[in-house]
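Whiteboard transcription, Tuesday session. T.W. wrote the C-alpha cells on the left side:
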C-alpha cells in the first residue's frame, strides 16, 4: 500500500519535536494535504495536541509494546489521509533501555520504512550542529535520515553557517527562537490541550513552519517512502453490532486513552458511552472503563460528585465489570491525600488510600503476568504496558493483586492490580494491541453482565 509518510525525530527530548509536529500538521492541511498524526511510544499528551488541532484521533505506535501489530495499526489508521506524520519520542535512538533499539523512534522508522526528518537544537552552536547531524546519520545506516530542520536559529547568518555545516545532508529549514509558541508542561509531561487550548498559539506555530520550512520538499520526501503492507488488519477494524454498553470516564480529570483501545472495544461489539466523573451521574451501561489523567487536580470536584461516587460503588458491589488504570485506580480508591495532607473521598471500590507525592514514583515500560483470574485476564496471561505516576498507594489492606511484575515497579512488592468483585484497578496503562484477549475478555464480561 502506498502511504506517503515521514517521522519527526530529535537528537533528544526538548528540541521542539512536539511544537514542530503541531505546526507541520496545520501547515500541511492548509496546503490541501490531509495529514494523519501518529506518536511513537506510549505518551498520551502529544497525541492529544494532534487531535485538538486536527479534530480527529491521533494514534500511538510502539515497537516494544506491540511490534507485530505496528504495520496493521499504521495502515488502518492512515486510511483516508494523504500523508502520515509520525512524531518521535525522546532522542532518535532512545528506547526500551540503553542497549536495545526496541521502542525507539529509529526502530519504528525502520519497521514502517519511513524517512526521518531530524530536529536539531541549534542554540549556541554552528559547525558542531553539523557534526551532530552526521553522527546521527552514520550511527545506524538502516535509518533513512532524509533531512534536517534546525530549531532555535538566531538569524539568517546563523542559518547560513548551519547549512554549511551539513556534510552532504539536506537542510529543510531553520526555525527561529520563539518562546511564545512553546507548549506548556507539568509533572506528567505537556499540559493537556483541553485545559484552554490556545488556538492563537497553534496558529503562530503554523505560521513559523510555513515561513521557515520547505514544505514542498517535506511532501516529496514523504512520497518517496516505499509501499508498505498489505498486512492483515487489526481484528477490531470491522465493527460489530453493539451488544453491550461500556461507560468511558472522559473529562478534564480522565483523558488518557489509546485510540486503538477504544476502537478495539467497539470492534468487539461494545458501544462506548462517554461520561464525566466530575459532573455526571452514571449512565445506563454494563461496564466501566476509567483511564488515566489528572484526578489529583480535580480531587475536590470528584469528591463533591457524591451521587456518582455512590452509584459507582453500588455498581462495583453488584459485580459490574470495571477496569481502571492509573488515574482511574486513584478514583477507585477509598481516599486520596493531596500534597498538603488533605484527604478526599473517592469511589471506595477498594479500601486503600492513595497519596500524591512531589517525586516521580515510577516511569517506564512494564511487563506483567496475571497471577489470578480477573475481569481482564486469566491466570497466566501476559501483557505489556507503561507506568508513569507521582502518586503511591500508602495504605493497603488485604486486597488481592492481579499481576506479578516481570518488568517495572507496579504498586507494591512487585505486584500490581487491585482485584475485587468484577473490578480491576492498576497503575499500568495497557495497549490492547499487546494483549488482544484482554479486550475480548472485558467485552465478554460486560456482555454477560448485560444479560443478568
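and on the right, the sequence the group agreed on:
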Amino acid at each position: 500500500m502506498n502511504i506517503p509518510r515521514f517521522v519527526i525525530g530529535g537528537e533528544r527530548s526538548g528540541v521542539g519535536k512536539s511544537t514542530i509536529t503541531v505546526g507541520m500538521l496545520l501547515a500541511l492541511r492548509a496546503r490541501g494535504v490531509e495529514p494523519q498524526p501518529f506518536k511513537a511510544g506510549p505518551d498520551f499528551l502529544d497525541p492529544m495536541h494532534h487531535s485538538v488541532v486536527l479534530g480527529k484521533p491521533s494514534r500511538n505506535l510502539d515497537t516494544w509494546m506491540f511490534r507485530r501489530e505496528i504495520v496493521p495499526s499504521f495502515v488502518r489508521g492512515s486510511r483516508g489521509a494523504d500523508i502520515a506524520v509520525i512524531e518521535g519520542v525522546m532522542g532518535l535512538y532512545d528506547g526500551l533501555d540503553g542497549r536495545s533499539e526496541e521502542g525507539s523512534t529509529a526502530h519504528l522508522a525502520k519497521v514502517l520504512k519511513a524517512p526521518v526528518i531530524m530536529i536539531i537544537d541549534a542554540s549556541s552552536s554552528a559547525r558542531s550542529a553539523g557534526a551532530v547531524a552526521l553522527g546521527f546519520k552514520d550511527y545506524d545506516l538502516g535509518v533513512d535520515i532524509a533531512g534536517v530542520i534546525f530549531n532555535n536559529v538566531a538569524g539568517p547568518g546563523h542559518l547560513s553557517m548551519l547549512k554549511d555545516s551539513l556534510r552532504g545532508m539536506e537542510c529543510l529549514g531553520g526555525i527561529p527562537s520563539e518562546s511564545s509558541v512553546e507548549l506548556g508542561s507539568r509533572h506528567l509531561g505537556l499540559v493537556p490541550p483541553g485545559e484552554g487550548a490556545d488556538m492563537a498559539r497553534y496558529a503562530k506555530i503554523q505560521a513559523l513552519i510555513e515561513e521557515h520550512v520547505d514544505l514542498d520538499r517535506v511532501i516529496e520526501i514523504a512520497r518517496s517512502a516505499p509501499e508498505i503492507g498489505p498486512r492483515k488488519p487489526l481484528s477490531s477494524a470491522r465493527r460489530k453490532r453493539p451488544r453491550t454498553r461500556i461507560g468511558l470516564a472522559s473529562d478534564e480529570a480522565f483523558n488518557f486513552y489509546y485510540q486503538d483501545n477504544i476502537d478495539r472495544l467497539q470492534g468487539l461489539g461494545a458501544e462506548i458511552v462517554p461520561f464525566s466523573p466530575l459532573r455526571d451521574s452514571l449512565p445506563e451501561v454494563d461496564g466501566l472503563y476509567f483511564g488515566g489523567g489528572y484526578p489529583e487536580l480535580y480531587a475536590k470536584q470528584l469528591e463533591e460528585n457524591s451521587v456518582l461516587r455512590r452509584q459507582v460503588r453500588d455498581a462495583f458491589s453488584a459485580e459490574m465489570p470495571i477496569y481502571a488504570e492509573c488515574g482511574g485506580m486513584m478514583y477507585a480508591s477509598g481516599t486520596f491525600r493531596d500534597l498538603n495532607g488533605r484527604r478526599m473521598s473517592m469511589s471506595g471500590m477498594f479500601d486503600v488510600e492513595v497519596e500524591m507525592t512531589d517525586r516521580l514514583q515510577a516511569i517506564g515500560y512494564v511487563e506483567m503476568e496475571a497471577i489470578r483470574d480477573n475481569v481482564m485476564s486469566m491466570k497466566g496471561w501476559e501483557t505489556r504496558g507503561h507506568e508513569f505516576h507521582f502518586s503511591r498507594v500508602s495504605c493497603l489492606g488485604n486486597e488481592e493483586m492481579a499481576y506479578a511484575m516481570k518488568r517495572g515497579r507496579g504498586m507494591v512488592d512487585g505486584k500490581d492490580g487491585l482485584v475485587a468483585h468484577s473490578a480491576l484497578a492498576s497503575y499500568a496503562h495497557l495497549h490492547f494491541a499487546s494483549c488482544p484477549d484482554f479486550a475480548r475478555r472485558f467485552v465478554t464480561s460486560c456482555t454477560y453482565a448485560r444479560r443478568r
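Someone added at the bottom: The first helix runs from residue 17 to 30.
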